[in-house]
Design brief:
The structure is a single chain. This protein has 158 residues and is an alpha+beta fold. Helix content is 58%, strand content 13%. Strands 3-4-5 form a 3-stranded antiparallel beta sheet, with no helix packed on it. The longest helix has 38 residues, at 80-117. The protein is elongated and about 65 Å long.
Length: 158
């Protein structure tokens, strides 16, 4: 294993990676409203290769339940049961993001403990850095919770 170092910016970068993944997953949940993000995973064959749809077409949202991609695609309304199912999926995505963030925190704290054990940093520096890691973790998890609440509200709004 390489010699561990404590890099707060690296920890924050990894935590925000979990946030980016959550944004992508929440963006893919259908809420009964049209969103260009619904078509991001769609691949089409064009010019002899597979390409994302948004690279060969303009995707627009002229109305809340209408997507425009050379032809009109209707987005069906969601019933209450489907909305509740989507909320459960959103909660699952958010929990996966929280777990990923906690793993980053654990990795950071492990590095700090090793540095402290090897007497490369003082106990006070280790404690101060551990508090910084926890503070960053709390901030990013609060961002996850905020994103989840917004998505849940969007899904449940009829």
């Amino acid at each position: 294993m390489a010699n561990p170092t404590h890099d707060m910016n690296e920890l924050k970068r990894r935590m925000h990676g979990a946030i980016q993944l959550l944004k992508q997953e929440l963006g893919g949940l259908r809420t009964g409203r049209a969103s260009p993000g619904l078509l991001e995973p769609v691949q089409v064959e064009a010019y002899g290769t597979h390409m994302p749809l948004n690279q060969v077409a303009t995707v627009s949202v002229p109305e809340p339940r209408l997507l425009s991609v050379q032809v009109w695609l209707r987005i069906p309304e969601l019933n209450e049961e489907r909305r509740r199912d989507l909320v459960k999926v959103a909660h699952k995505y958010a929990e996966a993001a929280r777990v990923a963030i906690r793993h980053v925190r654990r990795d950071g704290l492990d590095v700090l403990k090793k540095l402290e054990k090897d007497h490369k940093i003082s106990e006070d520096d280790g404690k101060r850095s551990s508090e910084q890691v926890q503070k960053a973790t709390d901030e990013v998890i609060a961002e996850v919770d905020k994103m989840l609440a917004a998505k849940e509200k969007e899904i449940l709004t009829v």
